[in-house]
Specification:
Largest sheet: 5 strands, mixed
Strand content: 15-25%
Bound molecules: adenosine-5'-triphosphate, magnesium ion
Helix content: 55-70%
Radius of gyration: 51 Å
Shape: rod-shaped
């Protein structure tokens, strides 16, 4: 099929050329449908004219005093009427009134009176097939009291006239189909093919250089489907171009921030060393400000590390291993920053037998972020409880605390990086990173509920069951 298409001449491969050929074929086809009844009608009229002419000839005969004509006049009358013989048929007998030299044998008789359309069509095609018979045609005498009129016709004359007529129809059909096809071709070319070419050219140019505004298709004011397609394409290209430009800016900005962060972290590490030394100084004023200084530096370092880890677009793909979830939750509690005074209780209600197949390090980071948030929120003390259950092929973990619930700002921008933080010193990255890590596992992190009685997050890890 592909081969055959390639073998087509170049001019025939275009949409408009194919439509041109198709239109010609369709017009010719409809012309054939018109031709069939019209050739039958042409034959009928030809034969009816012979009957009418024969009638006139018989009138000439009647006008003579003794019904006798000279032989020359008789032959002339027959030749003018394009018939070879004329007979009058009365109920009692058939009277031959005019006849040329050789009385011919009749091959077929056709009665024109009351012949139906299908019969007339079949008779016309019989003439086109044979064309050299001698026919007897029966028609009505204008004055019916005198009976019917019969003429002997040489089919060759009828055949020649029908071929003439058919050739003319053929020529006319060709001209009409060429004209129609040409008009269809032109209108399609103008209405569809040219705009389609414009769209295709713009698509190709845009793919090659999306940042180049000249490769965009012009905004169209056409009201039809093509206009709509052009407008939509224009908007899409505009959107893609803007997104690309924004992405490039963001990438540049991200690279700059990463560099600054990296250096800043080194500088802060030095500051941390110095502030540690300050902590050893006995001066009461220094002792009073040193802890706050150290705390600020710690926060700054935390901010740098978090931003750096978020900026890494290529967070490593999860490396799944099988591990006991309960043990992991125990590990998290050791790093969650639980106060020493025991004001926060940590309840690990995860059944010991639940094994999970996931990246242990990444799930640890997710739970640690949730745990730190809970501990940071429960300044007055409270309880953190972690439960897990099996759900289908996966595992569902619920992380609950009895804290004061999410502040409004955090709730509005939950899981959005940098914007969700409602905590002094918070970067607003913890939950965004946690969600990203879970989504990379094919799961989801959602807020189940949060009110003055506490907050519950739900972690879905589909297909994580071992
Ligand atoms: N369990 C919780 N109870 C009450 N508020 C919470 C809880 N978890 C999160 N929040 C609120 O949601 C905000 C966003 O949390 P997220 O962990 O994303 O950022 P952060 O804790 O402010 O900063 P980071 O975790 O990056 O150091 C927090 O500032 C806090 O106000
Ligand atoms: Mg946090």
């Amino acid at each position: 099929m592909q081969e055959r298409k390639r073998n087509l001449p170049r001019w025939l491969r275009g949409l408009s050329a194919r439509l041109l050929v198709l239109t010609m074929i369709f017009v010719m086809l409809s012309e054939v449908l018109i031709y069939v009844p019209s050739i039958a009608r042409f034959r009928l009229m030809f034969l009816e004219n012979r009957i009418a002419d024969a009638h006139l000839a018989s009138l000439a005969l009647k006008a003579t005093p003794d019904n006798v004509l000279s032989r020359t006049l008789e032959l002339e009358l027959l030749s003018n009427a394009m018939v070879r013989g004329i007979a009058l048929k009365r109920p009692e007998a058939r009277i031959m009134i005019l006849m040329d030299d050789m009385p011919p044998d009749v091959d077929a008789t056709y009665d024109l009176r009351g012949a139906g359309a299908p019969q007339l069509i079949a008779d016309a095609f019989a003439t086109l097939r044979q064309g050299d018979r001698t026919l007897r045609i029966v028609g009505d005498f204008p004055d019916q009291s005198e009976g019917s009129l019969e003429v002997i016709v040489d089919e060759r004359q009828l055949f020649a006239a029908m071929i003439d007529y058919s050739t003319n129809i053929m020529k006319l059909s060709l001209i009409i189909s060429l004209l129609t096809a040409g008009l269809v071709f032109l209108s399609l070319q103008l209405l569809m093919v040219l705009p389609m070419r414009r769209i295709t050219a713009s698509l190709v140019a845009f793919r090659k250089a999306p940042e180049n505004a000249n490769s965009m298709i012009a905004f169209s004011t056409r009201g039809d489907e093509i206009g709509k397609a052009e407008r939509e394409l224009h908007h899409m290209q505009d959107g893609v171009r803007a997104a690309l430009a924004q992405k490039a800016h963001l990438a540049a900005l991200g690279a700059a921030v990463s560099k600054i962060n990296h250096d800043l972290r080194n500088i802060l590490a030095t500051a941390q060393l110095v502030s540690d030394r300050l902590g050893e100084v006995q001066d009461p004023t220094v002792r009073q400000v040193a802890p706050r200084l150290m705390q600020s530096i710690d926060r700054a370092i935390e901010l740098c590390s978090q931003t750096l880890s978020f900026g890494r677009a290529d967070e490593a793909a999860p490396k799944p291993v099988a591990f006991a979830l309960r043990d992991l939750v125990d590990d998290v509690s050791a790093f969650a920053g639980l106060p020493n005074d025991g004001s926060i209780t940590w309840r690990n209600d995860v059944p010991g037998e639940i094994m999970v197949r996931a990246d242990r390090e990444q799930i640890f980071r997710v739970l640690l972020n949730l745990a730190r948030n809970a501990v940071q929120a429960m300044t007055q003390g409270g309880e953190v409880s972690v439960t897990a259950s099996r759900g289908g092929a996966g595992v569902i973990v619920e992380f609950a605390d009895s804290g004061p619930g999410l502040p409004d700002k955090a709730r509005r921008h939950l899981f959005e990086p940098f914007t969700s933080s409602a905590r002094a010193g918070g970067t607003g990255l913890g939950l965004a990173i946690a969600k990203e890590l879970i989504v990379a596992h094919g799961g989801d992190l959602t807020l189940l509920r949060s009110d003055s009685g506490g907050t519950v997050f739900r972690l879905d890890l589909p297909g994580a069951r071992t």
